[in-house]
Amino acid sequence: MTTTLLMKKMSTPLIEIRNALRSDGWILLRDEDYSLESFSELMLALCKKLTFDPARQYASRQTQSVDAGTVAVGLHIENGNTPLPPDVVAFHSALSASRGGRTTVCDGAVVYQGVPKDLQEKFTQSMTSSRYLPKALWQRYVANAFDVDDPEQVTRSDLDRLLNAIPGQQAEDADDGGVIYQMRFDPVRNDNLSNIPAFANAILGPSYNYQTPEYRFSDGTILTKDLIQEVAELCEKFTQEIAWQNGDVAIIDNKRVMHGRREILVPLSERKLYIGMGLGLND
Prior knowledge:
Blueprint: H1 3-9, H2 14-24, E1 26-29, H3 36-46, E2 47-51, E3 64-65, E4 73-76, E5 88-95, E6 103-107, H4 108-114, H5 117-122, E7 127-133, H6 135-145, H7 156-165, E8 169-173, E9 179-185, E10 188-189, E11 198-199, E12 214-217, H8 225-236, E13 239-242, E14 249-253, E15 257-261, E16 272-281
Antiparallel strand pairs: 1-14, 2-16, 3-16, 4-15, 5-14, 5-16, 6-13, 6-15, 7-9, 7-12, 8-9, 10-11
């Protein structure tokens, strides 16, 4: 379906969505009765390039299923421990949980302005994340980055090409074909759609499909559980909840606004949430 045909079906024009992302960091589309098909079409119309998480199952050629168990999920930007996190993340609630499961959103630009100066200064220095990645996961990630159809054809030299293309990465071989992957990142970033400083990272987030990373500051000190808890409590003051209704779509500037989830209090079969991710906004 072309963008023109999609626009005729949409209640909220693409320009309004883009403006909301730049001004507020996120937008909720309600009472527009999205289906998985129309949500997929929206992502194609909105983003220049769609991206995917190698650990998730596909729901369509443009979107994936969200399956991270039932426990609460901490605030994070999507794929924040990768070199190419998406610019835009969107969620479509096809079946909303009757109890629990609300998605949380937290504007990192507001957090940055609201935290004490000592923490603000601490997180303006670069950090590193380090974790083990199985071979199948890094192959699928590299395949998506380089548009390779068959991830099993991705080699270590392809991984090296990605490592060399984006500074601040390194990978040490493990015995089983996996790698110990390390990446330098800025916990406060300015590469969001508004080009403003925002506390936007994954240090509070989940590792449902991955090994939990170890985080270190630039001086080598480890990010402690106590400091993580302190930051989580500060962020909670600026956190909003999305009480999902069937057909809702939420679109987020992934480099400014963090998201998470309250505990799901119903069986997973009673909740269906889909995710779409992309780089760049179409004009």
